Amino acid sequence: MLMKFTVKQIAELLQGTVEGDENILLDRFSKIEQGEEGGLSFLANPKYAQYIYTTQASAVLVSNDFVPLRAVSATLIRVADPYLSFAQLMSFYTQEKRKKTGIAKFVSIDETVTLGENPYIGDFTHIGKNTTIGNNVMIYPQVYIGENVSVGDDVIFYPGVKIMDDTVIGNHCTFHPGCVIGADGFGFAPQSDHQYMKIPQLGNVVIEDNVDVGANTCIDRSTLGSTMIRKGVKLCNFIQIAHNSDIGENTVMAAQVGISGSTKIGKNCVFGGQVGVNWHVKIGDNVQIGAQSAIARHVPDNAKVLGTPAFDVKDCVKTYACLKHLPELFNRVRELEQRDK
């Protein structure tokens, strides 16, 4: 933290209780195993409980039911959920740190653009014709925003973001460096001479409220209609969302997930890293998909799947457990075959 808060102020902000000196000043976040004076840490995972007795952090967030086995030198702030509380504090700090206003000298803003209140626009940013920017939007340097784009309130565009024509963005969204929203979908029609004819992509991308898009992630515009990213979706880095896909609300995806065209994904789904989804597949609500899984067919609501091709996670784990015994089984079968000759 660059700002200083007392333990008492932190506890009041988190609706927690203090055990120790409530007047200690805190000015940074610290790992519990690498704590330092003036630092605030947290204990959420029992595997790290040993460090609370040796940490040099001045204060530690702990759960209301935490019972120390011996004396703790750090001041304790008891809360219902230490991990969530720590995240809330970091979010609060980040929001305060991000606050910027003003328009830099070297920008290109078309005269038809509508800007909301309190904008921040960094150098070498371009905003195209008939685009509308909401209130409290922060656009860092070297961002490109095309024509006929609509941006809601409290949106952040980090350096190098590209928002192509006709994109619609809701409120409280964040776009991390290098992501590209609204580039053409991968549409080509094969011809008899083995060449491919480009299919114009005439649709757009619609991103609802509270969406977070990671660095270098690409969301393609639809052929017709809209590629939809519903409210609360969180996308990690290096993700590809193809044209005409529909990602349900509050779905989260780890890095390097690839979603093929016209895929419909339900709400509250969780995708591990490097998951691949075939085109025109439908995935239900509350689905969990393990890392590096390949989804080739529809997945029902509440399913937990893993593997290539993916199937029920319990059966998949059993299958993988058997696989490591295949060499031994192969040798036994070969011995039996030789014995029978």
Question: Would you spell out the secondary-structure blueprint of this structure?
Answer:
Blueprint: E1 5-6, H1 7-14, E2 17-19, E3 25-26, E4 28-29, E5 39-42, E6 59-63, E7 75-79, H2 82-98, E8 102-103, E9 108-109, E10 114-115, E11 120-121, E12 126-127, E13 132-133, E14 138-139, E15 144-145, E16 150-151, E17 156-157, E18 162-163, E19 168-169, E20 174-175, E21 180-183, E22 188-190, E23 196-198, E24 204-207, E25 212-213, E26 218-220, E27 226-229, E28 234-235, E29 240-241, E30 246-247, E31 252-253, E32 258-259, E33 264-265, E34 270-271, E35 276-277, E36 282-283, E37 288-289, E38 294-295, E39 304-306, E40 311-312, H3 313-323, H4 326-340
Parallel strand pairs: 4-5, 5-6, 6-7, 8-11, 9-12, 10-13, 11-14, 12-15, 13-16, 14-17, 15-18, 16-19, 17-20, 18-21, 19-24, 20-25, 21-26, 24-27, 25-28, 26-29, 27-30, 28-31, 29-32, 30-33, 31-34, 32-35, 33-36, 34-37, 35-38, 37-39
Antiparallel strand pairs: 1-3, 2-7, 22-23, 39-40
